[in-house]
Amino acid sequence: MAKERPSEGKAKTILISACLLGLPTRYDGKTKLSQRVIDYLQREDLLPIPVCPEQLAGMSTPREKTFFHSGTGQDVLAGSGKVVSASGQPMNEVFCRGAKLVLKIARLSDCHHALLKERSPSCGVHQIYLGEECVTGVGVTTALLINEGLEVISEEDL
Question: 0.90 exceeded by the pTM?
C-alpha cells in the first residue's frame, strides 16, 4: 500500500465557534447549536476546529456578559476601541489574547476559513453589541483573522 502524501485525502479544516457545534461555551454557559452549520460542514466535507476565544483566554464559563463600550474589533486591535464587562471591567487584553490564540490554532491546523458566531464581541462577523445596541462591526477575533488573511463568515451567511 502506497503511503498517502500529507496533502492527499486530507479534509479541509475550518475554525468554528464552539457554541455553534453545541458546546456550552457561551458566556451564559449555554450553546447556540446550529443545524445549518452542521449541515454545511457535512455538505462541504469540512473538518471543524472548535474554538472559543474567551475560554482560550482563560475566562470561565459561565462568565460575565461583555460588549463594546466604544469602537469595533478593528478599533480594539488598533488600541482605540474598548470591550468591557457588564460590571465595567476593561477586557481588551483578555479579548486580544483569545484572538491571538485562535490565530495560532488556525495556523497549526492549516485553517484559512472560519465560521463564527454573529454578534459576539469576539466572533461577530457583521454585527456586534455597542452597549445594548446591535451595530455593524466585527468582533476582536474576527478582526484579527481577517487582518491575517482568513476568510470569515457567520452562521447567518449560510
Answer: yes
